[in-house]
What we know:
2 domains; single chain; mainly alpha; Arc Repressor Mutant, subunit A; 73% helix; two-stranded antiparallel ribbon
Amino acid sequence: MITIGKTIEKMTANKTDTIAATKAMQALMLETIAVFFLLRAVGKRMGAVTAADGGYWGVLRSLKLAGAQTVPQLARSRPVSRQHIQKLAKEMIADGVIELIDNPAHQRSKLLRLTLKGEAVFQEITDRVAQEAESLAQGMDTEALQVSVKVLQQLREKLKQTLA
Length: 164
């Protein structure tokens, strides 16, 4: 009889934990969406996001960190279409921040690479992002920010598995 009581107690506790975790995840998702739109607005002001909501700085950052890549490679590294990256790449080529180069692995699929101007623009935007991060971090708890980063990293991995 005691065992059954303990089992029921444990099941109730697990159900309560699941409900609490579900509510917390829903709140996190809603806050993340709200913060995304605000970050996008700040990103537009800094030049990190184009008026058409393209991830200008994100593409520059990807090319800086990983080197030359094709449009499909860039698209696969984000949950966006190849067409979205192609449109953004055309804009960035016209701006002179990236260029097309031959791809030794594929005759028709050119590689995108940062230009010297692209390196400078990347650094400018990166500096603006760092200044904005410093401003936003004022008065916030460092440990809480670090926990938030870990939670968002875990969520990103779970979402990637869901989409795979």
